[in-house]
Amino acid sequence: MEFDIFFSFSKMDTGGGMPSDDLLYRNLFRQIETADALGFERAWIGEAHYSLLPEQKKEQPLLPHFKGELCINTDVLQVASVAMQRTNFIGIGSAIRNILVNGGPIAHAEMVRTFLTIHGPSLRKSGRKLHIGFGSGRFAYANEANGVRPRNAAERILWPALRGAILKEASEIFVRLLSGETLGSRDVPVKRLTRSACDAAQWTEACTALGKPADTETLEFAPFWEFEPLCILPTDVGMEHLELTLGSHDPALQVYLNQFLPVRVFNLSVTPGKVIDATHARMAKAFHPDGGSWTRNMMPRTIMVFVRADEGLSDAALNELGEREAKDAMRAYWLAMEGTVDEAKVLKGMENAVYGSPEQVTRMISERFDPSDRLMAWFDFNTNDARVVERRMLDFMQHVAPNLLLQSQDKMDASQTLVLS
Q1: Strand (E) positions, 344-402?
Q2: 254 conformational bin, left if phi > 0, alpha if psi -120 to 50, beta if neither
Q3: What is the pLDDT of residues 40-65, one digit of tens each?
């Protein structure tokens, strides 16, 4: 089992006043340094664009009860530039980088290649990699500000279905240009939607808007990024210090992108086991050969951690403290998101958390995950308190991780013995 760390990097007033951006960035870099010293392999940083405040004042406000910003990181490459100077081993990654904004997929491909060129010597010396998790972002308003919005009545009607096709278009441009191809928009397949994949009434309405018969089987849509053939700079940097991870659960897209470069996938700990197994089976067949054979640790899985290892307390007391901490965080989260607390949602959220004493946290992780999984441990869920985050990090790596590694090795040894026998 391998251990990464995820920083949602939110800015919230959780009762002690609103922290400054400067303080949060100083805390983040210190926590990445701590994670490096503790042995976490990768630090994944959340990303967002543009303040929620104007969105909260609109006629149909977005998250009107949330006080603060969901994430204040806008560019993982700048974070990585600083963090890698202050650490020795840990890789830095984005979870996730929105490739639709800030110039779109062409600009993002060029920025990543530039980073790899500038930092190539230090990456080669340390053996580290840049980990780019990419997708389309969480909120539509950021994409709309960058021109990714319906351009006519038909697109507005079919927008929920069309968004996936737009992510495919952007992802293909991003990955193929990163690989060093000379590429123009005419080299990217036309976006198509089929009647069977859309709501029947919406399909009929969209066909009418386009002046087409209602029984039309396929509709084509113009590119969102139209450009003549180009090749991005710098041109002579290799991809050996870059790992790509797709932030989409679309099975077809996961397979499609691996025609061009090795592209891994994210997933959540609450994803049903059958979906996890199906993803591994699919990726074992589809993963690009330049990435080697597919292994379970290529799909990071998030887990919220509320471990308590306070000296002098019994396991029962630690379990009670950890559970209360987790539930309080869940309730505060839903209160911020919706203005009310639905206990059913709190309990559902607890399924993506482990809490309590090191022994209980170890057992909960062992029951939910395969010994070969890669965990993205999430310690800063709904808190800006650096002391709490760092205490959880320390308790996990000192008291939980060693037990999990020992159990993982025992299970793998037992499995190997069974195969040999």
Answers
A1: 353-356, 374-378
A2: alpha
A3: 999 999 999 999 999 999 999 999 99
Cα separations (Å) of 259 from 60, 235, 290, 295, 366? 41, 21, 10, 18, 34
Bridge partners, 246 (sequence order): 134, 265
**CA-CA distance, 337 to 340, in Å (whole number)?**
8
Looking from the CA of 308 toward its CB, the CA atoms found within 13 Å total 20
Tokens 């998790």 sit at which residue? Answer: 133
Q: What is the DSSP string of 41-88?
A: SEEEE----S-SHHHHTSSS-SSTT--EES-----HHHHHHHHHHS-S
Instruction: Write the pLDDT tens digit of every residue in 248-262.
Output: 999 999 999 999 999
How many other CB atoms are found less than 10 A from the CB of residue 331? 17
Contact assessment for residue 62 and residue 141, using Cβ atoms and an 8 Å cutoff = yes
Q: How many residues does the chain have?
A: 421
What does the alpha-carbon distance between residue 258 and residue 283 come to, in Å, rounded to a whole number?
A: 9
Q: How confident is the model over 13-43, as pLDDT tens digits?
A: 877 789 999 999 999 999 999 999 999 999 9
**CA dihedral sign, ordered 309, 314, 315, 321:** negative
What residue type is 361 in one-letter code?
V
What CA–CA distance (Å, rounded) separates 35 from 41? 8
Q: Is 180 helix (H, G, I), strand (E, B) or coil?
A: coil
**Dmax (CA) of the chain:** 75
Q: How far is CA 321 from the centre of its chain?
A: 29
d(CA 141, CA 105): 18
CA 201 to CA 15: how far, in whole Å? 48
Other Cβ atoms within 10 Å of 359 Cβ, number: 15
Distance CA(58)–CA(259), nearest Å, equals: 42
Look at residue 285 and give its three-state secondary structure: helix
Tell me the two tokens of residue 413.
Answer: 């040894």
- pTM (2 d.p.): 0.94
- In contact, 171 and 105? CB cutoff 8 Å: yes
